[in-house]
Every structure is written in structure tokens, then in C-alpha cells.
Design goal:
Blueprint: E1 2-8, H1 13-26, E2 32-35, E3 42-47, H2 52-61, E4 66-68
Antiparallel strand pairs: 1-3, 1-4, 2-3
Length: about 70
């Protein structure tokens, strides 16, 4: 498994709820988390198959900003 990390603007429970269906579909439930306590709102995705570009596309598709950490 590889771990990918990104800075996002996913900063609250409502934001996490909004992006959950997309990330669960792409990465699988339990394979991602957002550290909303971190000032950079770090999204960590653990996957063997997803590329960073796929994660960026999924998060941007859900309406959030994202960049490599």
C-alpha cells in the first residue's frame, strides 16, 4: 500500500460528509482520512491503485481545492 497526502480546504464535518461518497468510491471506505485539526487540512489516502491525479480529480469533482502536500 502506498500513502498519498494532500493539502485541502476540507475543513469541517459537513465538508467531509460532502466528499465521503466520492472518496469511498475511489479509495474505499476506511482508506482515507482528513486531519481537520491540521492547519493544512491534510487528506491521507492509502491505496495500491490510485494515482495522485485520480485523487485530485475526485476531490475537485466534489467541489474542494486540493494540492500535493
Amino acid at each position: 500500500m502506498k500513502t498519498l497526502q494532500f493539502k485541502t480546504n476540507i475543513n469541517c464535518g459537513g465538508c467531509i460528509k460532502a466528499v465521503t461518497p466520492t472518496l469511498n468510491q475511489q479509495a474505499g471506505a476506511g482508506n482515507w482520512q482528513v486531519d481537520t485539526a491540521n492547519p493544512n487540512k491534510i487528506l491521507t489516502v492509502t491505496s495500491d491503485q490510485l494515482t495522485p491525479a485520480q485523487v485530485v480529480q475526485a476531490v475537485e469533482g466534489a467541489g474542494f481545492k486540493i494540492q500535493a502536500a
